[in-house]
Structure formats: C-alpha cells, structure tokens
Structures
1.
Amino acid sequence: MPSIIACLRVALLVLVTLALSAAGGAPDERPPAVTRTWTIDGVERTAIVHLPAKSAVRSPLILAFHGHGGRAARVERSMDFQSHWPEAVVVYPQGLPTRSARDPEGDRAGWQNRVGEEGDRDIAFVDRVVESLRNEGWVDDARVFATGHSNGGGFTYALWNARPGMLAAAAPVAAGSFDALRLTPLPCMHVAARGDTIVPFANQQRTMTAVRRVNGCVDDGAAWAKDCTRWDSPRKAPFVAMIVDGGHEYPAAAPPLIVRFFREQTRPARADDRARGNDGPWRNDIGVFRVDGRTGEVARVHTFARAGVSSVVRLADGDLLAAFQWFPEGDDRKHSFDRIALSRSTDGGRSWSAPRTAEIKGLSDDERAPFDPTLVALDDGRVRLYMTRNAKPGSGPSFPRIGSAISSDGERFKIEDGVRFAVEGTPVIDCAVARFGPAWHLVCPIQDGGGRAYHAISDDGIRFTRVAEIVREPNARWLGALTAVNGAMRFYGTSDRGIWCAQSVDGVAWTRIDGADAAISKVPGADPGVAFLPNGDAIVTATVIKPKR
C-alpha cells in the first residue's frame, strides 16, 4: 500500500471520528442486530452483525462461523458472543452451498476447508466484511478474532492459514485442519469432545499437537479453567485445549471461555499509535515466504516488523536484497521513520540482516524522503533502486513521479539525474520494473483506476517512453512485482482475493498463470516482491496486516 494513500486513509478516519463526535455520539445500549449484504463477484453474501454502542475507540471484532448445514441465525443464538462481550462487534456470516463427504451434492451451506478451495470465495467474503466494518470506523485491527464450529472451525483454520496477519487469535470448535503445520504462530484455543465421531477426537488431537508445535509450546501445560489446559509460548502464541465429554454438538460452556481467551490476547494500543490515529502502514508487517518450485508448498521464513511496500532481488553474487518502507519503533524514528530500509540474506532467504535505513545521496533540500522502492539487479553487478520522489509539503505544487538511484554495494545509493517516469498533473507512485530481452518495462498502477496501469518502455532503464495502458479486471490491481522468467515477463499483483499472477511476452497482452506456476498466489498478503532462486524456488515478500497486541 503506498504511503500517500495510507496517510489519506488515516486523515479520512480522523474526519469520520470527528463527525460522529459532533453528531452527539450514539446511545449507550447495543443497537439491534442487522442482516447485511455484500456482493462479491456477482454473488450476494450475508451476515448477521451485532454492533456495540458507538464509542470513541474502535472495537474488537469476532467472526463466528456455523458448521456445514448450519445457519447464521442458529449459531447467533447458541454462541451468543454479543452477550458475553458487549463491547465487541460480532459477525455471524452465512455460508454458501458447499460439497463435502457427507454432502457430495453440495445441497447445504458451508465453508471452504483449505486455502484455494471454492476459488477462495469465503476468504474473499471475510476480507470484504472486515474491510467494510473497518472503513466505517468500527474495527480495532489489534483485536480481530475468528471462531467456528465443525466445518466453520475448519474454515477458521483455513482463514488463519490465508490471513495470518489479520487475526489476533483463533478458537476452532470440533474441527480439524488439513494444513496445521503450514500455519504461522497465533494464539489459539481449540474446543473438542472426547465422544465426537463426526470429526473424530483422535483427528482433533493430531491437529492440536501440530498447532502447539507451530506455536512453539514447550511446557506440559497448566490448568486454565474448567476442562481447559493452557500452554505458554515463547512466540507469544499460547494454546488452550478445552476437552469436554459429549459428541459433536456445540458445548454451551465454550462461548464465555472463548471470550475470556480472546480478551487475554489483547493489549492497549501504544501511545504513539493512538497519537497517529491508531491506523496506518506502521500497523503492517512484511512476511517473507519461500515457495517450493516443485511442490508449490509455501512456508513463512521471516518477518520484517512495522513495514510494507516491499521489493526483493537476487544479486549477481547470489545474495538476496530486500527493500521496503520501514516504520521502526524507538528514539531514532526521526532519522528512519517512513524511510526505505534494506536487508540482505546470504543463505537463500533463510535468515536476514537487521533492517538499516538506506543511504541515498543526491536528494535536494526541498524533497521529502523517497518511498515505494523497487530493486533491479544489473548485469555489471550494480543494483538500481527505482522509487517514488516528491517535494516536501509546503514546497509548492508537485506530483509524485518515479526516480532512481544506483549502488555498487547494495547499501549506499546515489540519485540518478532526471525523472524515469511521470504523468503531468497526476501522481505516479509505486512502480514495478524489469528487463526482458533488450527492453526495460515499467508498470505503475493508475490511482483509482481499478485494473489499469501505466506502461513505459526503455532501452537503458533510464529514459522511458510511455506506451498504451495495460488493463485487467478491476480487482486485479497492478501493485506488486514484475520479473522475467522462463522466456516471459510475469506480474504478481494485488487483489481482494490475494496475489494474482499473469504473464506476457510483449507487456501488452497478459494471460493468467495457472497450475504449478501459480503457486505464488497462495502466499498470504499484498503488494508482493518476488525473486527466483537457481533451484526454481521463489522468495516472496508480501505486506500482511499485523495486529499490535
């Protein structure tokens, strides 16, 4: 997400908050529940939404999913989280007809059980619900929780796998996970019954063991509540197992204990976050993922905290270099806040150096720090950094444009004279650049342009000539990485469903990438950077929402 757009969103949220305050606030009582509708890819999706009494602070959000064949209205009554946590926004989404082993024709409503199933329709649904409630000023991103029963619990695990940065904690009930070992550490409470024959207890035990392993739980556990054992985690991802007698039914004792667990995973917002409106790109992390070129398996290998808008490149010496916007905490923020940072890996992406603010010489005194970096390795061993440049506020009319800097060591850069790409009277930000054959291609998303992007070409990577715009469907935003591989250019972009990928041999006509080559689309996050290793594996950096707890 470009820094300018993020700041505009912060300003908009502040204005919305002031407007609500001026209107005299809201009643003290929780308003009645409403059924809300969202249309996603032409399909209407609904959910029962319980909003708390409006307050000056954002609210925790609980997403609660029914089981296969269930209904939102039914679990609204049985789970009743709105009564156990009156200050929370509680959403009971309604599933769609879904095939399962017990329902091969897909006559009853349910959820996808794994990332990639059903076209990720349910993950897209959750994305839209959270986004809309957030934009209305309701959601505290530090406290977004998911829980569900049976198939809804399986989807809770799938959502965790797809959107690890979205959730502060998860609480599946009577469920299993096909991909538990692919999860990233997250506080989790699992509720199971010894007599469950629908999702056999032994299967749930295997899932719980895998989750404890992922979360790094090493102790023997201790009593936490009736029927509950809690394991601590050095990764700040505790695990609670609630084991009860009975079968596959939803335990009546579960909701208040789930709420207790969710409450324990939250922390007050930091004072500096509150001062900045509690929203902004500092609320994100960059996840570093390795995608197996043979199996397509995705593994998260590293995290750059409080960061976004990343690029990664493999240098001539084989090292990997990552560049990104960085919002570090600490007293040195004056020198590094919202600056381009660099990190290097010498072992194929398994470990990374501590981020350091890039040294960029040659900027004018009336220019703000450059942002939105894109790295390109040159044949002579140097590395070029393309970035967005703009004047400081108060320096007169100016629109962001694309500039560049050059480095011989990947640490110290010098500004290259001139503008690489600009459009008169229009901001141009966050480009992607790659050399393919004798030509260089530069792509920039058109702001508010849906699936449209500017396209420019060059024979030296310096002097670019604008050519016809490139267009895909509105949800396929040209915000990501451009690279040349296997005789074609590939673009890995951003959409509401996650990363999309397409390829072209001329930069004009783009076709969707399917099959094994599309494995990068399984990486959770947005605005990816992509670099390929000699063995065919890919290192992918992507912005993920990181709750600050």
2.
Amino acid sequence: MGEHQIKYELEGESLYRFVKSLLRDLQALEKLIKDGLIESGKDRLGAEQEIFLVDNEWRPASIALDLLQEIDDPHFTTEIGLFNLEANLDPLDVGANCLSQMETNLSYLLTKASRAADKLEAELLLVGILPTIKKSDLDLNNLTPLPRYKALNHILTGMRGQSYDFYIRGLDELGMQHDSVMLEACNTSFQVHLQVDADSFANLYNTSQLISGLVLAAATNSPLLLGRRLWSETRIALFMQSIDTRVSKNYLREKSPRVTFGTKWVKESILDVYHEDIARFRPLIGAELGQDPFAEIEKGIPPELKALKLQNGTVYRWNRACYGAFNGKPHLRIECRYLPSGPSVRDEIANLAFWFGLMKGIPALYGNVSEKFNFEDAKMNFYSSARLGLNSQLLWLDSKAVAAEQLILQQLLPIAREGLQTAAIEPSEIDLYLGTIEERIRSGQTGSQWILNSYSSMKNKGSSGERLNALTAAMISRQKTGEPVSKWPLAQIEEAGKGVGNCYKVEQFMTTDVFTVQEDEPVEFAISLMDWMRVRHLPVEDSQNRLVGLVSYRDLLHLIAQGWQQNNSPVTISQVMKRNPISVSPETSSNEAIEVMQSNKIGCLPVVKGEQLVGIVTERDFLLCAIRNETLFK
C-alpha cells in the first residue's frame, strides 16, 4: 500500500481496466518465472520496523508528519496512525555477520529517530500494542492524512455498511463497536522479508506457514488492549477484526476475511497464492497504471507489475508472497507479518534468526513439508500461540500435541541452529541470537509475560490508567538499555514519574468495573450492593446499558431516616434515584470534571460514551491521584 496516487472507487470502466491490468501482470509474472528471469541463488534478508510515538505523559503522540520532517531520512515513512512510524531497513545478503549488521543498522535508525523525537518532546516505543492507547485516540483526527489511508477507510467501511464489531476474550473480555479502520493503528509489528528462488518458493512458503505458530509462541508481546488482558498476541485477533468487510447477516455464505492465514498448502508456485487471493477478494483501490509489463521485459527492465502489487497490498496474509526488484533484477520474497514490534532490538533480531534458521533447517530435514505435515495443524498452532503464547500445546509430527516450551527447546532450536550453520552464519552470532531465544523460553519471560506480570505486580498500586502509564514508561526505559526482555526486571508504579499522576482525562483513571442497578429492583438490593462492594454510588441503567439515574449512599440514609423500614412498604430504585444525573465523557479533562463536581456539589460522575455507561469517577479518585503525586514528588 505504498502507492499515493490512488483512486477511491473501482467501478465501470476503471474496474474493467484495473482487472485487465491485473491479469496482464499475472501473465507477465508467469513469463518471468517460465523464462528463468527471476533472480536465483541469492538469499537476502530485510525488515520493516513499526514504531509507536509516545508523548511525555506516556500517551500516543500524533506527530508522525512533523517527526518525518525532523528526521529527513528516506528509510522512514508513515503508517495509518499519526502516532505510528515505520522504518525500512536496507536488505542484506545473508552471510557471516548479517544478523549483527541488521541489529546495528536498526539501532542506528532508531537512535536517529529518537533524537529527532526528543526535539518534539516525544519518545519511541517498540511494542505490539501500546498499553496506554485509548478508544478516544482512535478517531479519524489521528488518521494520517494521505490518500491511501483515507481510501482504505472509505472503501472498507463502505463495504461493511455498518460499524465494526469487536469481541476478544482472554483473561478479560473486550466487546466494542467502532466506526472506522483506526483500530488497525493499535498494532505495530516487525515484518521480516526473505528473498527466495522461484523454483523453491512453494516449499519455502509452506515452511513459513508451518513455523508461524512455532515462532509466534516464543515472540508474543501484545497482551493488553484498552486495559484488558486478552490474547498473548492480541494483535492477531484485533487486526483480523479491524478490517473485516464481512457482514454477519450473510451467515450462510462462506467468505474469507481479508486478514488470513490461508486455506491450504501451495502446490506449485507463487502464482497459486495470487490466483487464490484474486479469486477471493475483489480489488479495493486503483491507481494510474504503469508501463506494459511485456514491453518492459522486452527491454530487459524488471516490470513494475503495479496492479498486482496494489492488489496484493490489500490482502493481509500473515505470510505474504511478494514480487519486487533489486539492483535491476526481479525477485520473489516471503514476508513474515505476524511478529510484534519489540520488546527490544535484540529480541527482534533473535526472532528473525529463529525464523530464518527454521526456514533453512526445516526443508533440509523434512523435504516437502506439505507431505509431512497437516495444513490444519499449522493453522491451529498459529491461533493457539496467538492466544496462549508459551502456554500453548502445539501439533507436530503425526499431529501429536507437544508443549510449546518443550518443542522449542528440544527440537526447534537445534533445527534452527543447523539452518543458520547451512547459511554460513558465524557461530558466535548463532550462539548470541538463538541463545537469546533459549534464555527467553527457559525464563518464561516473553514480552507478553513481562507485561502481564508487571501489571499484576502493581495491583492495588494506583488506578488502572496509572499502572498502564508505568508499564509504558518502564518499557521505554528498558529498551534503551539494549537488554533482551528475559533480563528485564518488572515495572514499578514509581517508574511513570510525572506520568503516574497523569490525570488529564477522565478515561485514564475512571473505574470501568462498575456495579449498577435497574429501576424496578428493590431498594434493599442497592443497600446490599453498597455494603458488599464498599461503594457509595450506584448508577442506574436500563436494559440497553443507558444511564437513567444514580443512587447515592446519602439517598439511602435519607430514606431510612424517613422511617421507610417501619412503614414496611415496598420501595423500588426508581423511587429514590436521581434522574438524569450529571455525567461526563471519557475525554473530559480532569480539571473540568473537578469543576463540575464542585459547582454541583456532587461526589461522583458517571462516565458516558454516546448513551452508554462506560465508567464512573468519584472525588476519592481525584484525591488518591493528588496524594500519589504529592508522595512521588516530595
């Protein structure tokens, strides 16, 4: 999706011309393969680093365009969110020190970007999902204002014809609706590219599918979304749902999501992948078409295959088949898209080494993997690892389930080591990067587990928002040391510094685990609920979760003082509640919320988004926030 001069709609003549060009590109690619014009005998590795931009309060910083100007380096480009950035690494020939060279190159680019961000009072963070991101950050004001992103949102939202429904269940649950594709901006990844020969593409692509769940189990780094503990790699579930154009009412028709693992092994060539994707997914976006590919081939110029590349950029396989050109020669690549950003640069290169080692070692050991392994097992492994990480049971030879930790340590790391040795990687590099994976597995501390353990260790220390601030601050601090995540100490609430007292918006410290009552329930239930849960305010909501009233401890004391118990008459919640209570939105500033409470002499504010009750904030929350600030900054 790197094309800027795109068209929003494909219909009529424009659709006809685009599809004709798409078919001609496929024919041209087939000719390149048949005539042996695809570069062969050359292993190259490349990568794309996606980054979160964070302000000095640990929140998303929508400064991507300003930062790109400050960096002034063509290696960097935009992503869909203004608080995201992407760095593209130069491809490297596979050889003795290519892994450490890639780590050096990536560290250089990140240092350059970090220095530029510092001038804008911002930080870089490598993590699959930013812990402090809020739903309010995901409105279209934070969509990068470039044609391709506007077109993506316009077309996918139009195809869906209704709001996007999200439901992810892990330790917690998240159910929500959103009106754009901006939830995609919650995700950042470390995408790895491997150049492959045309005649070995099918088996290597199948290998990349086979090892997806195996590598992901060791690499998860995205367990939190909007304060909920969900999958070990929540990015997988979120990305699938964030651009899903399928409508639930068409339940009798089987349709594939545009984010896909695939449906079967590849039999012959890269054309199998493209044929299936073009057959299943209509073109979304058009562009001014390039030169005739056959004319370019005749001139000895690698054809651009613009229509094919544009179509391929709107189908989101976790292992993507890519066509490109480098140094004047056309080539094929496999892009691994499921690895999360972070936790550290060392961890990312270790993940790459593990992946590449298996890409070389598995075919050498097992030959044609489609004959030895079940595709459905590979697919199940992928989603199991996304959900459970190292706690997953993975299906291996003869579909036997093996604990992820055991499989990685006893079988996969030795295979990866053999693969890297075959690729002539220096023994010291193999020891360094595969040793990083081994230490991570033996310690049980993947990025996801570090985040979850840190979050749990701060329980009852500050609000949920403050703990998420501390997590973010701690990750930034530890990434700067260069140490892999297996060596990271857990985050501490104090690490957030001034961010711990960050009460800029109500959503950052409101209580979302809200106990409520309904109008027709007896008042005794409200009294019991306040006693059991130690709360002084109960929102009253209807069956659609809309706020209709509020019952306070003082209201119930007043009722008792009037002799209600002696009268022995039934009283419902509706008779004591205050109707149409004053409320605020999650985006309300803390100063404004305090002023509302003071001017109206009230002790709490229900928090409402649209008409839905989403939380509650009390004077005690503000007091605790102030006390923690005072304690930290003495």
